[in-house]
Amino acid sequence: MTEQNRNTLEKALSQLPVYTPPDECWQEIGQELSAQLQEAPLQEALDALPAYAPPFQNWMHIADALDADAAEQPLREALSELPQYAPPEYVWAGISRELRPSARRIALKMMARVAAAIALLIGLWWAWPQEDAEPAHTSYAYARETIDGAFGHEADWGQADQLMQRAVQTFRRDPVARQLPTYELLLSEWADLQAAQEEISDMMDRYGKDAQLIRQMSKIEKERSGLIREMIAQI
Amino acid sequence: MNRWKHLSKIITSPARLLLAILCSGLLGLSSNELTAQTSNLHVITKRLEKTFKYRDGYEVNIEGEKADVSIETWGREEISLTVEFVAKHPDKGTAETDIEKIKYIAERVRNKIYIRNYISVAEGEPEPASNLSARYVVKVPESCPVYLKNYFGTANVINLAKRFRYQGEFSPVGLENVQGSIDLTTRFGDISGKRLDGQVTIDSRRSNITLEEIKGRYSINTNYGDVRILSASAGLLDLNITGTKSDIFLFDPKLLDYSYALTAQHGSIYFPSNLKMEFLKNTEDIKKVEFQPRAEYYPSVTISVTFGDIYLEKEKTDRR
Description:
The complex is a heterodimer.
Chain A: H1 6-15, H2 23-48, H3 56-81, H4 89-99, H5 103-127, E1 137-148, H6 161-173, H7 175-178, H8 183-207, H9 211-234
Helix pairs in contact in A: 6-9, 8-9
Chain B: H1 2-11, H2 14-29, E1 38-53, E2 59-65, E3 67-73, E4 78-89, H3 92-99, E5 102-109, E6 112-119, E7 131-140, E8 146-151, E9 154-158, E10 163-169, E11 173-176, E12 179-187, E13 191-194, E14 197-205, E15 209-212, E16 214-223, E17 227-229, E18 232-244, E19 248-251, E20 259-265, E21 269-270, E22 278-282, E23 286-291, E24 300-306, E25 310-313
Parallel strand pairs in B: 2-6, 2-8, 3-7, 3-9, 8-10, 9-11, 10-12, 11-13, 12-14, 13-15, 14-16, 15-17, 16-18, 17-19, 18-24, 19-25, 20-24, 21-25
Antiparallel strand pairs in B: 1-4, 4-7, 5-6, 20-23, 22-23
């Protein structure tokens, strides 16, 4: 068939405006094509995967679930059409009363309390002293004793405490002493002896200054003196 | 040489020299010189006696304060306790009042027999003015385990055969013929033991330890105290000692029969020349030697000290 007015048509087409798409369009098209190319192996692998049909029972379960939904549909519709009523206040009050602990729960609580009391009694029985011993027989004896020196020996220790403390402080700060391998040990010894002196002093307050405690205090004093001499030698 | 260096340092520092002179002078003054004065005291002794029946599984638990405790065994299935509290004061009334301020507990709770003394002063009453002390004599069957805690007292233990645990402070303790599990912890209280046999563990601080005729296995850790093993018996299996600022002495005529692993950091090791030790380290700071006898079975002696010396000698000399 010969086209009529072909020239006119060609002229009109040539007069149509020409639009060039922006570069981004071509880039996007290119990216989509390359993505498809990249996914090609994946697609091929997917195609190569074996296909399995689910067992018949699975379809039966799905069908049953769908039927059940369909069967409940009238019930749901009926429920939605039911009229709604706000219950009066006394109904809520009644419900509240019913929510209070039941007699069974009270009984359980009571049983727990009784069990705790029994456990406590058993514990007390366990910890309580058992008297399978004969009662203690007590007697007193009186005697006299003469000792050398005055009773309640005067405390003559600690006279050099301030000087000792100064010596220890000097030793503690001395840069040469700090380099000694025994530096920490000597300070730890000093702390030990200080604590010991305080303990002995406390015992003297409670039990009196007897010969044994005085000897122990003297020994600690001598050790403290020796330690101070050792520190001074290193300063 | 080192001392000259220190002396020159002291002389170049007048303040330090003054401090040293003052300290030295005053330290010399701190000795206790007793005067010729005498004092007459009233001595009141409160004596209590109590006996408990003994059954297997029982343990005696003693907590003494300013108490001289004596623990011995006997053939009866009973635990006997004799306690004496003593108050001394020039005024009789004061001694009588003060002796009642020493309280005591002696009771059985399940399988433990607790014995304890302490001072209790009622509110408003004065503190005791007398010299107070306690004495315990506890007799137990030899299989009865005993746990003794003692504070500022003394303790003597003989013939126990099963278990003895001791925790003492400022309290020397002596043990003789004690067997089984022996666990001793002490601070400012020397330990002396003779014929101990079993698993012996000692942890001591500022206390000297002297042991004689030792048997069994020993693990000793000591700080600021010397250890002297005067002799070992045929049943010795292991002897492990670690010490800091402690000298360790082992005296025994059979030194060649034992194996040794000895280490001294900042110290020295002395041993007889016929004991052919192998030196693994021999620097100024550390010395380490080993020796193994040719016998198939032998006791192992492992000693490690820091700031102390190790001495192995065939017999004890007076200077040791």
